[in-house]
């Protein structure tokens, strides 16, 4: 349906290396034949189901393919162009800085390269505003988390507003938020916005209670926050009272089997409460989707009208970490496009 592609959209939850398209993946595989990686190892076709653990194995394969400055520049530019082609007008990309001794890549250079890709796209006139969230992989513990915050803080001050915040992600079965709390507090205090993966699996109740007191500026997934799935009223109250927007990724959650089916997705719980919900792709490459498809999926599953869908995409502007004047510009863009789309 062309409506969803035409719809101006805001993407707030996209992991760089999970967003690499099959076309770009082909190029990377061709560049590194010695790795013997097949395309079926880097993406999960629609309709297939994997455990969350199997999904994390896919990232390990992709990281082998994307391990130099040149690779990062290429994938970041391609991902930005693909989001723009899908009608995304504002994008917050997130990625975990990696160092690779083999190619001489440092974490600082990693971040600089993503920023360089964002600049190049802007210079080339790609119609999208892109910001960057520096990601902490929870498996790496306290010390690395602290170093990542320092890195993010440096770039927040030197990147002309490109680096706006911090993401907490990585395998939810590994590590505990309590060990990362000081780093996250430090990030908050220096003005970095926080987008945290919370309650992605049932066992994270205690951790979520702790992290919700920071509080985060946005929640990733929040699949198991509500009492019906083993969360609690306390958790829901904390989210509602502080009006913390939730980033919801339908295809990712159903494919990774943390949600049994589309109609049982927790989008319904939060949306019917009038809570700020933002539809996102998570990993458009790995899960073979795009943001238009996610909007269409939500609309058909939960019987949303085109007006409802429009409001959902417009509301996302105000859940972003963009400075106020940028939000105003986006509002104007939406106002201009409304009569064309609806
Ligand atoms: P990168 O940070 O390398 O650009 O993107 C891949 C990384 O994002 C993964 O290694 C993982 O740390 C994180 N990631 C991607 N998708 C998910 C997800 O669905 N859940 C969590 N918790 N982390 C994810």
TrEMBL record:
Q: Which Pfam families match?
A: A_deaminase
Gene Ontology annotations of biological process type:
adenosine catabolic process; inosine biosynthetic process; nucleotide metabolic process
- Keyword match Cell cycle: no
Its domain of life reads Eukaryota
GO molecular function terms listed in the Swiss-Prot or TrEMBL record: adenosine deaminase activity; metal ion binding
Q: Which cofactor names does the annotation list?
A: Zn(2+)
Please state every residue range assigned to the domain named Adenosine deaminase.
8-333
CDD domains referenced in this protein's UniProt entry, alphabetically:
ADA_AMPD
Which reaction does this enzyme catalyse, per its entry? Answer: N(6)-methyl-AMP + H2O + H(+) = IMP + methylamine
Question: Subunit comment for this entry?
Answer: Monomer.
What protein name does the entry list? N6-Methyl-AMP deaminase
Provenance organism:
Astyanax mexicanus (Blind cave fish)
């Amino acid at each position: 349906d062309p409506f969803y592609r035409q719809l101006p959209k805001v993407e707030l939850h996209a992991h760089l290396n999970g967003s690499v398209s099959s076309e770009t993946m082909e190029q990377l595989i061709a560049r590194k034949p010695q790795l013997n990686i097949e395309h079926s190892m880097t993406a999960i076709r629609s309709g297939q189901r994997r455990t969350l653990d199997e999904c994390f194995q896919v990232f390990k394969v992709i990281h082998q393919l994307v391990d130099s400055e040149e690779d990062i520049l290429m994938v970041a530019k391609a991902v930005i162009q693909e989001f723009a082609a899908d009608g995304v007008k504002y994008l917050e990309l997130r990625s975990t800085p990696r160092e690779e001794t083999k190619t001489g890549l440092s974490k600082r250079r990693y971040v600089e390269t993503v920023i360089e890709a964002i600049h190049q796209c802007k210079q080339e006139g790609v119609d999208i505003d892109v910001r960057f969230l520096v990601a902490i992989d929870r498996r790496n513990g306290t010390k690395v988390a602290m170093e990542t915050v320092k890195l993010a803080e440096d770039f927040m001050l030197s990147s002309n507003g490109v680096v706006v915040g911090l993401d907490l992600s990585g395998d939810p079965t590994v590590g505990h938020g309590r060990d990362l709390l000081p780093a996250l507090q430090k990030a908050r205090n220096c003005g970095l916005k926080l987008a945290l993966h919370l309650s992605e699996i049932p066992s994270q109740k205690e951790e979520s209670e702790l992290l919700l007191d920071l509080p985060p500026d946005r929640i990733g997934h929040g699949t198991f926050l509500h009492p019906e799935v083993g969360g609690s009223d306390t958790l829901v109250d904390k989210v509602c009272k502080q009006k913390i927007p939730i980033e919801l990724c339908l295809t990712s959650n159903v494919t990774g089997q943390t949600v049994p089916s589309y109609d049982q997705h927790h989008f319904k719980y939060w949306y019917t409460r009038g809570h700020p919900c933002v539809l996102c792709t998570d990993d458009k490459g790995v899960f073979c989707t795009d943001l238009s498809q996610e909007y269409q999926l939500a609309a058909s599953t939960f019987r949303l009208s085109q007006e409802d869908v429009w409001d959902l995409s417009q509301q996302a502007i105000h859940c972003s970490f963009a400075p106020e004047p940028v939000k105003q510009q986006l509002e104007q863009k939406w106002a201009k496009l409304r009569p064309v789309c609806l």
